[in-house]
């Protein structure tokens, strides 16, 4: 009996180790590593090739609470993104910093982050982000994308998100209220619905690049060169 128990425990441990190794390999392939107790995104996964289309999308308008860049910039990027989407994280952490440096900081382009949550956890993260101060919003988005797999796979997502918010000056009680705010949830879902109905957005990330000369829709995560080509064209409109 004792020998059977030993074999059973040994089998369970073997399965656990094999699962851990396989899981670690999978995460590494996706660009995630274990760092100081958390799983972090360190390299981008491969995204589908973006498809750019010239379309008439002027009926799409939202009142943007947060804008990255000058409000009077001639070109606007609407980023339709889910905080739980890995390709969205690839763009936000890998491509956006270069776009910010070359186009946004010079006043040529501004970016509006349009929440397109794909699940409950993404919605909670989006709602919490909307409680951030103007000057902390995009930095908080960056942290959420960087820690995406940690809170996304956790059984204590709400607690983790509240902890992240605490580092940006939001107390835990306020954070909990933010993640249960029905009015805020309705506003986020309204933008999501408008994107689906007026722009036919079906996947994340997607981008609407708007200028006086018209709108371009990009589906998928564009590289820096692909997006800069569209921006340069728009700046000539």
Description:
This protein is of the alpha+beta class and 237 residues long. The protein has a single domain, classed as Glutaredoxin (3-Layer(aba) Sandwich), CATH 3.40.30.10. Helix content is 51%, strand content 16%. The protein contains 9 helices and 7 strands, in the order αββββαβααααααββα. It has helices at 2-29, 86-104, 120-129, 137-146, 148-153, 157-166, 172-178, 182-199, 224-235; strands at residues 32-35, 38-41, 51-55, 75-81, 109-115, 206-211, 214-219. The strands form 2 sheets. The protein has a 5-stranded mixed sheet with strand order 3-7-6-4-5, sandwiched between helices. Strands 1-2 form a two-stranded antiparallel sheet. Strand 6 and strand 7 form a beta hairpin. The longest helix is centred in the N-terminal third of the chain and has 28 residues, at 2-29. It is globular. Residues 4-52 have low confidence and may be disordered.
Per the principal axes of the C-alpha atoms, what is the gross shape? globular
Strand content: 15-25%
Give the fraction of residues assigned to helices: 40-55%
Distance between the termini: 81 Å
Mean pLDDT: 82
Give the strand line-up of the largest sheet: 3-7-6-4-5
Largest sheet entry: 5 strands, mixed
Fold-level CATH name: Glutaredoxin
- Give helix and strand order, one letter per element, not per position: HEEEEHEHHHHHHEEH
The CATH homologous superfamily corresponds to Glutaredoxin
Count of folded domains = 1
Give the CATH architecture.
3-Layer(aba) Sandwich
SSE-based structural type:
alpha+beta
The number of distinct helices, counting runs of at least 4 residues, comes to 9
